[in-house]
């Protein structure tokens, strides 16, 4: 893929992001912006910094460890989420620190924060204060329930519970299911990036920035809402269907001797293909299974018949038999296997991260930017705020034009 | 919220989208663009149209129905996903149809398609053909495994299985869990919108468009990859932990007499608050539970102790007792309850849809745009392609400048 020049650029090159975020949701948003080419400047408190620095496991000179042993052990969470970001230290509670912050904001296109709602304003670093310095700035707030709501901190499991996502997963009559991937933490940032880019587009027309405000509860609930639950209830359709969806039968997950497979054989040729793969083509003539309507009516029996076949066979054989009949089938994979799928590796949808000093004996594979551009690349600058304030000199001197004396004075004041 | 003028605009106003998408993933992407203010022109085959038109349940003169009874019954899927879109009919397999398509592309900023990979090019309507007509166009392809992969159709359940998302959810030793929300179908479009907006931003600098290519497998696997599974395995941390996460104990979902609650009491003051809410403050001095480390070491016992308390009480009482102690807690809600949370309703993160002719006795609540802008609104034009080709006249005459004769000839040729 080429845009005709030898040098491919990343699509957001030239945009500067001031990143006040901590933990997962906010840092994932700015990680996406960094991977798309924006220059992200991560601001941390001089003492403590991002809590994700304390997330176990760590990687360092002794490899992977549950407990930090050495000063230069790095949390893999931090290694992942702070990739490609430039790190500065700033105590926003000091006037000196805020003065530096506003110098950064004056140079910025975008500010992102995920403090508890209301905190940025209380610290004096919120949108109104930034707008006064730089009316072109797009200021994004990511919170549990919205920027004007004060219900306090929201964690992924709380939002999963409130959104209905947890209820809809799992078997009827069984407990709800906590989704293993932190969906609430991850989804709000994706919508935050959409909001930021839409506001940047609007800025091309208006010349001014604005406040973008995304809530974790809203983002995940909007996803849940794509199914019309009230209409489904009115139509007598269940809200939880477990491993299979009987109104589309056969559709869902089936058992093998050594694992599980997802199978979709909704339409006639697929159902016939499934029966052939099972070595029981006569099921296609069976009055219980010979048309889509009767398959749905006899779904429980059909699923039992399929499981009776599949559970005796190794997963690879079930997959092979169904593939030979062009029936959509896939193994239920362990995440470690999923992450090294050659297709996602080739597209850098998953990527390796590494400690800047030490090699790891295992591949530390993490999230990439799951978008391919024909006229641009994606990827991360070779930057990582290993220490808090790692790039103070570079940013304060080169971007803000501070001299040595000013930087020394800020240090002496404890502002950086 | 106001930008200082009386009239609020949507951020993407002025952008024109040609929408070739069908089913869920593609239409959700263009629905987001429509809600952000782009003019979306949905192109459907004159015969058949989008398969989502045939999704049960339907709404119409008889209310909600599982089976279509009247010509003007509308699938709620279609009502939801085609909101705010202008519908034209075009047979892209005819030269006349393709000629109209390229006239549309010449006026467009964005084209979105989610045909099986390779199909758009085979039909002669892919990126290279569009670029020849309009080098500024951003052409987005949404597919199962990537635009150059020919592994065929991908369905949500297949991608959930392959991505590892299904494996990580659920209890250790139990079967995997199909996530009730179609995460793979929904996530790829969100990244597609990010890719489109990033390419539009790049176009401001380069003057040219490009091909944006997002895969369902890549989007969902990148989410799964935010956890470092190989490092967790190396550190002896399990990949599936079910309703609770014992290394953060107490953290997770607990049982009440009439439902389930999510509770997070990881830190010392929260754990003390939980024990106070339980009426057993002495647990805070119990050698098994008196510090974070011992709570994690005795997580199974701690969880049993909490469940013993909570399962005897109604959910509302458990929530009230924990809230009184400022311990993060939330009921596991049914989606119907989640969708009408006043917070998400106020922010239009969920929205009502309605049949253009008939009132429904129940609130048909569906996904909104979960982003608030201080200087813009979001929302949908009052447009819906009820019939295939609903807006042929308006688009072909007003946007393309075709006269009556040309439109009549296209009809006669079966091209529209």
UniProtKB/TrEMBL annotation, chains A, B:
Signal peptide: none annotated. Keywords: Transferase. InterPro entries: CoA-transferase_III_domain (IPR050483), CoA-Trfase_fam_III (IPR003673), CoA-Trfase_III_dom3_sf (IPR044855), CoA-Trfase_III_dom_1_sf (IPR023606). It comes from the Bacteria. This is CaiB/BaiF CoA-transferase family protein. It comes from Novosphingobium aquae.
């Amino acid at each position: 893929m080429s845009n005709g020049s030898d040098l491919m650029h990343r699509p957001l090159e030239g945009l500067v992001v001031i990143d006040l975020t901590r933990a997962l949701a906010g840092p994932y948003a700015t990680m996406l912006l960094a991977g798309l080419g924006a220059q992200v400047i991560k601001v941390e408190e001089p003492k403590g910094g991002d809590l994700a620095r304390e997330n176990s496991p760590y990687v360092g000179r002794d490899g992977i460890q549950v407990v930090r042993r050495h000063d230069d052990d790095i949390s893999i969470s931090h290694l992942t989420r702070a990739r490609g970001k430039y790190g500065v230290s700033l105590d926003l509670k000091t006037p000196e620190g805020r003065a530096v912050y506003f110098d950064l904001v004056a140079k910025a296109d975008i500010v992102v924060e995920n403090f508890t709602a209301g905190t940025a304003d209380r610290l004096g670093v919120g949108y109104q204060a930034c707008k006064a310095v730089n009316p072109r700035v797009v200021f994004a707030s990511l919170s549990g329930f919205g920027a004007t709501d004060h219900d306090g901190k929201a964690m992924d499991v709380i939002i999963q519970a409130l959104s209905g996502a947890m209820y809809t997963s799992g078997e009827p009559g069984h407990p709800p299911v906590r989704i293993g991937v932190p969906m609430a933490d991850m989804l709000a940032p994706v919508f935050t990036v959409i909001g930021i880019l839409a506001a940047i587009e609007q800025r091309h027309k208006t010349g001014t920035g604005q406040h973008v405000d995304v809530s974790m509860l809203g983002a995940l609930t909007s996803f849940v809402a794509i199914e019309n639950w009230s209409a489904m209830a009115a139509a007598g359709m269940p809200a939880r269907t477990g491993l299979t969806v009987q109104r589309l039968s056969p559709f869902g997950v089936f058992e093998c001797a050594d694992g599980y497979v997802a199978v979709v054989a909704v339409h006639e040729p697929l159902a016939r293909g499934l029966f052939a793969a099972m070595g029981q083509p006569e099921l296609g003539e069976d009055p219980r299974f010979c048309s889509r309507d009767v398959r749905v009516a006899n779904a429980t029996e059909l699923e039992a018949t399929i499981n009776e076949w599949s559970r005796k066979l190794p997963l690879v054989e079930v997959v092979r038999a169904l593939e030979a009949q062009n029936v959509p089938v896939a193994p239920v994979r362990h995440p470690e296997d999923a992450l090294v799928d050659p297709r996602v590796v080739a597209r850098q949808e998953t990527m390796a991260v590494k400690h800047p000093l030490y090699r790891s004996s295992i591949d530390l594979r993490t999230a990439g930017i799951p978008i391919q551009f024909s006229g641009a690349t994606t990827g991360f600058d070779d930057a990582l705020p290993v220490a808090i304030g790692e790039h103070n000199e570079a940013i304060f001197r080169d971007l803000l034009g501070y001299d040595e004396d000013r930087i020394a004075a800020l240090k002496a004041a404890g502002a950086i």
